[in-house]
Amino acid sequence: MTTQMTRASAPRTVTGKSSRPARGSAAHVGRPGFAWAVPATLFFALFAIAPLVMVGVLSFMSWNGLSEPEFVGLDNWTRIFDDPVMIQSIWLTLLLTLLGVALQTPLSILLGVWAAGEQRNRAVLSAIYFVPLLLSSTAVSVLWRALLDPNFGVPAQATWLFGDGNLFGKQSTAIGVLAFVSTWQFTPLHTLIYQGAARAIPQVLYQAAEIDGAGRFRQFFHITLPQLRNSIITSMILMVVGGLTTFETVLILTQGGPGTDTTISAYYMYQKAFKSFDFGAGAAIALVLVVAATIISLVVVRLSGYDKMRGTMEGMS
């Protein structure tokens, strides 16, 4: 009786046909075809690769925007690297980039971890703090230019703190203003990155740490920071690229002054191309910025091991 029931309940199969799911069934998951990548590839080639190639070609030309471009070989490159203002602009760009990373990274990590918690009024305070994300760089620069105006702004009313009130009159204070405004504007963006990453950390890690007697500081340095490793690298790359391409803030706040003390490379490119009508030299400076941002990003990725895409939750299941 048992044998007959077993045979009756066994599924019937057709002789000579495979029991694997059909090609179109839900169980079959294959890679998307190349056709899916064609729109994005064309878009990237048209709006990224093609303009970059045109800038590279223009860097070997002499062109004032009106006459016919004239091939001059390496003349533009020789002139920009013999220009002391260009050399100074490179160092200023690197300085502002380093200041941005040094200021924004610890602030955004602490605020992001805090915003990922369940504190009282956390949602309201986070929403207020993220307001700078809604503003453009131009709007932020105009706002702080008015607030820090040496004649009618806050420094003019608090000379006991700001001295003569002209924060844009010296290189050190002008660079400090640029670093502060950039930090105020972009820290909320990186805070949002860390907030999402902190919420993805499994709570079981903190529960196990509490059982072992670890306090909040040890949990932060031994659990939170290691789990945020990939997010830190991503955030730093965004900071580096953003720092090397900063333009509106300098244009509105300092206009490269006093003198050329805050003339960074992106602003110097603007001066060469759109004020001196030397588009060949401007294109060469733009290409230098692209190459520098790419090299620095690749170095950060390589040294951090991010290119190996190692996870931060090995052993979790």
Automatic annotation (TrEMBL):
Main subcellular localisation: membrane
Family of this protein: Belongs to the binding-protein-dependent transport system permease family.
Species this protein is from: Streptomyces actuosus
Region named Disordered: 1-25
Keywords from the UniProt entry: Cell membrane, Membrane, Transmembrane, Transmembrane helix, Transport
Name by which UniProt lists this protein: ABC transporter
Topological type in the membrane: Multi-pass membrane protein
Residues that span the membrane, as ranges: 33-61, 90-115, 127-147, 167-186, 232-253, 279-301
Organism ancestry: Bacteria, Bacillati, Actinomycetota, Actinomycetes, Kitasatosporales
Compartments where located: Cell membrane
One Gene Ontology term from the biological process aspect of the record: transmembrane transport
